[in-house]
Every structure is written in C-alpha cells, then in structure tokens.
Amino acid sequence: MKLLILVTVLGISLAQHDPHTRHGRTAIVHLFEWRWADIAAECERYLAPNGYAGVQISPPNEHIIVTNPWRPWWERYQPISYNLCSRSGSESELRDMITRCNNVGVNIYVDAVINHMCGSGGGSGTHSSCGSWFNAGNREFPSVPYSGADFNDGKCKTGSGEIENYGDANQVRDCRLVGLLDLALGNEYVRGKVVDYMNKLIDMGVAGFRVDACKHMWPGDLSAVFGRLHNLNSNWFSGSARPFIFQEVIDLGGEPITAKEYVHLGRVTEFKYGAKLGTIFRKWNNEKLYYTSNWGEGWGMMADGNALVFVDNHDNQRGHGAGGASILTFKDARLYKMAVGYMLAHPYGVARVMSSFSWSSEVSSKSSRYNDQGPPSNGDGSTKPVPINADQTCGDGWVCEHRWRQIKNMAIFRNVVNGQPHSNWWDNQSNQVAFGRGNRGFIVFNNDDWNLDATLNTGLPGGTYCDVISGQKEGSGCTGKQINVGSDGRAHFSISNSAEDPFIAIHVEAKL
Ligand code: AAO
C-alpha cells in the first residue's frame, strides 16, 4: 500500500514535467504583456503555422494599477484578486484566446502569482484592474476574500517583516519579497483559494503554469496545491494529462535554497543557462564556445528532464531578478540570435523564447527608471495592439523576437530534430563549433575573430540543403545560402567572422 501511494505521488509529480505540446512542436514563447486578443490572432496566423508549441502569458488575474506617473510592467505581479480581468483583457477575451490557441494546437501556460498579493504600501481604494476595492495596509482583499489571518505577518521573524537575508531560508519563505504581502500558503483556506483559481484556468483549457517566486514558498505547501489541481481539459488533452508546472526558482549557487528542493514538483527555471551562455558568447572570463561540448548537466545544471531553459527572461533582460550583465537580449541582436540558435539546436531542457517590448534606456522626465517602463500604451494607459508589418515584423514598439527569421527557423529546426541525439561534435578549440542532431539537422557557429573554413561530418543524407539562418527554403529554391552534403555526409562550410549572422543551420526539411 505504502509503495502504491509512493508510486502514485511520484507518478503525478513526474507528469507535471511534461509540457503536453502537440503536433511534434517543442519551443514555447513568452508573449510578455501581450493582450489576449493579439495572442489569439498570433496563435492562428503565426505560431501554429511556424511550429511554436505554446505561449507563456502574463498574469491574467486582477492586479494593482500603479501610476508612477505611468504604469510599470510589474504591476501585474501584485495581485488584488483572482478575478480574470487584467491589463491584457477581460475574462471573455482570455477564454476566447485559450480556445482559439488550443484549436490550432498551441498551448497556453499561465504565469501564476500565488506567493503574495500587492505591496504593503499599495494603499487603499479601487486602483485595480477590475476595479475591486482593497486595503493593503489592513490586509483586506474582499474580492478573494483574504484578510489579516491569511498572511505570514505573524510567522516572519525579521524586524522589518521583509526578506533581509537570502542566507536564511525561513525568512525567504515567510517574509515579504520586496514589500509584497506574503500569503500564508500553509493555511488550508489560502490553499483552497489558490487551487480554485488555478483549476478555473485548467478547466478553461490552459496546459499549465509558470509559477512565480517559488523560492519564496515552501515545497510542501506547493506540493499540497499542485496535488489538488485538475487534469487538463479533455476537449484538447488526454483525460489523464496533468498540468505542466515550471517553477521560478533563481538558483545561481551560494544560497541555502536550491532548485533541487523543487524538481520533484515540476520543472524549474534553469537560470545558470542564460547567465553562462551570455558569458560564453560575449567571450568574457576567457570562456570559449568549444567548452560547451558537454553543455547542460556537464556544466552543473539540473537534470535535463527538470529544466526549463531560456537566454533571457522578462526580469533579467532589464536588470531585475538575477543573471547579471552577461545576459544577452534583443539589444545585442547579433550575439542574441546565435545564443537563441544554440539553445534551440541543443537537446537540453524545455526551451522558452522571449518576445519583448522595447524600452528606452534613457531615463526621461516621465519615467523614473528605464527598467520599469510598461508595454506600448495609449494615452489612457491601455496596452496597444501588436500591429504586423508587411515584412512580418511587429510595429509600435513590440520587438517580436519570435518572428525574427533566424529564431523562427530555429524553432522549426528544434521540431525537426526532436528526439535525435546530440552528435557529430566539432570544434577548433576556440569559438568555432558545430554539432548535429542525429541524421536530421546540423548547425555551425563562428564566434571567433577570423573566418571559419572547414569540411565537417554532418550526419545528414547527401543532397542540397538551404541554410535556415541566412534564408530558408522557398518552393524549389533557397532564399539564402546553399550547403551541399556529399553522399558520405560531409559538407564544406565557410563563415566569415564579419557575416551579419555568423552561423549556418541545415535540416532535412529544408533539403531541396
Ligand atoms: C515592485 C517595485 C519594488 C516594490 C514592490 C512592492 O519594483 O520596489 O517594493 O513593487 O511595491 C516584479 C518586479 C519587482 C516588483 C514586483 C511587484 O521585478 O521590481 O516590485 O514585480 O510589482 C527575487 C525573487 C524572484 C523575483 C525576482 C524579481 O526570488 O522570484 O526577485 N522574480 C519574480 C518575477 C518578477 C516579480 C516577482 C517575482 C514578484 O519574475 O517579475 O517582480 O511577483 C537574488 C536572489 C533571487 C532574487 C534576486 C533579486 O539573486 O537569489 O531569488 O530574485 O536576488 O532580488 C547575483 C546572485 C543572485 C542574486 C542576484 C541579485 O546574480 O547570483 O542569486 O545577484 O542580487
């Protein structure tokens, strides 16, 4: 009996590692701050046709409205209730988006903010996205409802009530993270409210959750919550499918709380991935690309099956959170494309592509800090739609990295090589490397200050392939470079170090 229970519990939590992607699709994209109506359209017009597996959406629940004097992006990380009206749209728009994305096989993953409510200094009033009244000072959130007893104020042992020292696991879990009112997830009542919120979304058809600030919650409390989640909606998923869970735990080493404490509950965001890849592509600290022949676990990262990987996220692309200056973003476009290409070609982890809005690094008179700037907005503070230009890029300040040809084509590459082993590694003992994925795809990078000229074993069947970085296959031709693979699987590559994109990728579905 004991064994049976153990097997069942283990089975449920391992199931929460599966993103339940469909049609052989693999990569997910974070459409940060997009409106639900735009995401619905993007699923149909772009994500499904280009093989993206799913979307991480911004928090859909009611949140505080901060006017400082304009609205920062981070107001959505300050919940006021679990009503589903947010800066991205209404509940009916959310439902429409989930349905339409599911109908074209694109999964929706919700950013769930369940560690806390708004900041202790959030004031009192109806400055919230659905207009619900609350009083942060008195811990009153009648739209849930939560009140004083539902918070950890009594449990936290620091003088300020804030997290003062990340070296003390108790205060990291029981005290306030940057002033945010810390929910008592140990209490049955609070767990019930959080479970109801997540189950409502599951029943609407979402495929899982990015769970915010997991370092600040006890694994046992999370286990109690996750264990009560419904199976996914059987209109779109198999009846026994568990929600995909990926937990935000920043573990760069040096703190008592580690990612390991959470991996049995679901996947965990692997923050070492982007921090190290950024250092390598920038060639800082004498790092060289050829050191990555054992990329992944060999670099001290968590087990492949537990990792959710990314080059940058919505925090560290703008200096919030952790990762440091090495993080590559769209602002370093040339290196960024290579790093994202590397991630998408490499088998380690479930990969997430970032899709950003631009911000100005100038601190204007209107903005207090550049890294607080909210999404492209109208004069009344509402978020602007995402217009699509004739060349498929986005307008009005939406960066849409996921639509950049090199990134989009590498998301397709990842699908084509899915399940194939990392193979045919080659390097020049510096910053030129190449690797394949079985007999399905091959990629070559030149991040040295000199040209690459090499004949390499690709593992691919003989024939002519279109490079999907400089162009792609269209009709019976290539819009970019062509690579000829001999019947022995060998091909000659030449990549100038001053090329716009100094890497080449070929796969069997881009063969002429
Ligand atoms: C806003 C204002 C605050 C105000 C607050 C309440 O900015 O001034 O006090 O409202 O009124 C986002 C924004 C926050 C914002 C918040 C609420 O980023 O600025 O606060 O919304 O509106 C920690 C957490 C991690 C968290 C990260 C930002 O562990 O969970 O901070 N990320 C998530 C979300 C994020 C969101 C929240 C959580 C809150 O992704 O968008 O905040 O919902 C160390 C620790 C990390 C810690 C960082 C930063 O990192 O390890 O756990 O992350 O510090 O405090 C080296 C180390 C590395 C270390 C790093 C920085 O790299 O290796 O470990 O240095 O010291």
UniProtKB/TrEMBL annotation:
Task: Give the catalytic activity.
Answer: Endohydrolysis of (1->4)-alpha-D-glucosidic linkages in polysaccharides containing three or more (1->4)-alpha-linked D-glucose units
Q: Name one GO biological process term.
A: carbohydrate metabolic process
Report the cofactors. Answer: Ca(2+); chloride
Which residues belong to any copy of the Glycosyl hydrolase family 13 catalytic domain? 26-414
What is the name attached to this protein's record?
Answer: Alpha-amylase
Q: Which class of enzymes does this protein belong to?
A: hydrolase
- Organism whose genome encodes this protein: Anabas testudineus (Climbing perch)
Segments for region (Disordered): 367-388
Instruction: Tell me which residues make up the Alpha-amylase C-terminal domain.
Output: 423-511
Instruction: Write out the entry's keywords from A to Z.
Output: Calcium, Carbohydrate metabolism, Chloride, Disulfide bond, Glycosidase, Hydrolase, Metal-binding, Signal
Which Enzyme Commission number(s) are on file for it? 3.2.1.1
Q: What would you give as a GO molecular function for this chain, any one?
A: metal ion binding
Signal peptide span per the entry? Answer: 1-15
Regions of compositional bias (Polar residues) in chain numbering: 370-381
Entry's family note: Belongs to the glycosyl hydrolase 13 family.
